Amino acid sequence: MKKIVGLSLFALTLMSCTPFNPGGSYSDIEGRVYSLKYRMAIKDAQISVLKESVDTESKEDGSFFIKGLPVKWLTFQVSAPGHSLIKREVKVEPYGVKHIDFWLAPYDKVPDIQPIVFERDDNIWLTDEFGITQLNLTASVSNSSINNTTGTSLYYSYPCWSNDKSEIAFLGSNLSHRANVTDGIFTMSKTGMQNQRLVDLNSRAFSLRWSPVQGLFAFAMADTGSPDAQHIFIFNKPKDIIEDLTGKVVTREDDPYWSVDGEKIIYTSFYSTPPLFYYEEKPDTWSKERQQIFIMSKKGGKRKQLTFSGENYAPSFSPDGRKIAFVSNRTNYTEIWTMDADGNNQKQLTFTYSSRCNKPIWSRDGEKILFNSNYLQKYQSLYSSELWVIDTDGKDLKMVTNDAVHADW
Known about the structure:
Elements: H1 9-16, E1 26-35, E2 40-41, E3 46-49, E4 54-57, E5 63-70, E6 73-79, E7 86-91, E8 97-104, E9 116-120, E10 123-127, E11 135-136, H2 143-146, E12 155-161, E13 167-173, E14 183-189, E15 196-201, E16 205-210, E17 216-222, E18 230-236, E19 241-244, E20 252-258, E21 264-270, E22 291-297, E23 304-305, E24 312-317, E25 323-328, E26 335-340, E27 347-348, E28 357-362, E29 368-373, E30 386-391, E31 398-401, E32 405-408
Parallel strand pairs: 1-8
Antiparallel strand pairs: 1-2, 1-5, 3-4, 3-6, 6-7, 9-10, 9-32, 10-11, 12-13, 13-14, 14-15, 16-17, 17-18, 18-19, 20-21, 21-22, 22-23, 24-25, 25-26, 26-27, 28-29, 29-30, 30-31
């Protein structure tokens, strides 16, 4: 990507001592291996990269380093005495070192899990809090079973659980230039079976959320009438209608999330100058920051701004509805914050000093928060694709898995 001309002797000497990836075709992986049984690092764990003839062992502190892997999806295999072997799909990133932590479970202990659903490489996956067991739910989905025509595959994204966790809803997007398959909202069982299309969508959609009141789905979608606009929509399955909650406004809105009773929606609004909304509040009293968190009724009215300092986005309600987790950069780093449901008592939860963070989601018991972050990553990326979890008191931060975005718990 960058042409290097006239390197000095000092630069050449420095490069000879530093990992260098010509053209970004090869890169490095580092990380640690941990034991779920002992909750500590594992020494002499075996880390292999299948089909690449690469093998290494973890050091005393559980760390490992693998240099010069091809930049593509690879299968890692990790094992240690007394622990079950795991396999993991890993995307090797160009221009920097990727960090991955692996957790191994003992033979006699299966993790007591609250299943996590997430997106990886345009498919929907299922895993546990430690990333030990991972299942690709949509790998075997054929065009004939889920698409309305054949010939072009859809890319699956933004999975979310039904209220009772018996089903998963997700988006299917046709990213090719062929128009023979329509984007849409789909559902399937938690085992990946019984796939069905609920509705067609006429534009690219994002951030799907299933209401606690069955039959309602909130999502963001590009406005076909304006290339600069993205609105919040609701699909009402019983009535088979799609409603635009944003209205006739040229702005970008994203990250809808339902309240526990299904009566309200918190969301992110991108805007620059008023007037942008035509509701009860006066636009000239609102913050001029680029994106902030708002709350509104499920009909799109009674809008109220909850955050004002820095840029804030990706809100989610706690299971009891009293708290909201969100992302903020007000400290010049991108971290997870929490606040009361009315916007008061805003507190920083993580202190990772990261540049990218996204999509905090509460566990069903309200004791942990799942989120994406580029914490510990040394490769260049516009997105935070590693999945982390932390207790709501700010303790016990650990990586769940790699290359896992848009998760729901």
